[in-house]
Design a protein that fits this description.
This protein is an all-alpha fold. It has helices at 2-36, 44-65. It has one domain. The chain has two helices and no strands.
Length: 68
């Protein structure tokens, strides 16, 4: 039982690391999109990227809380 819990925690930690690495990449892409826009135009790419970051951030937060 303890081994299963330890394995689950290791898998959860690996998933969190993977997701946070992806968050960093997405944030950099969002910054690039914003840098290319101006005060009058925000592309749909900016909105889509921000929504993707939001979903992934919520997922990371839920994983950090651990199993319910």
């Amino acid at each position: 039982m303890r081994d299963m819990a330890k394995k689950a925690n290791l898998e959860r930690q690996a998933a969190i690391k993977h997701d946070t690495d992806k968050l960093v990449k997405l944030a950099a892409e969002l910054k690039d999109y914003v840098d290319e826009s101006n005060e009058n135009i925000l592309s749909m790419n900016v909105l889509k990227k921000a929504e993707e970051i939001e979903r992934l951030a919520h997922s990371v937060k839920d994983k950090m809380k651990g199993p319910n």
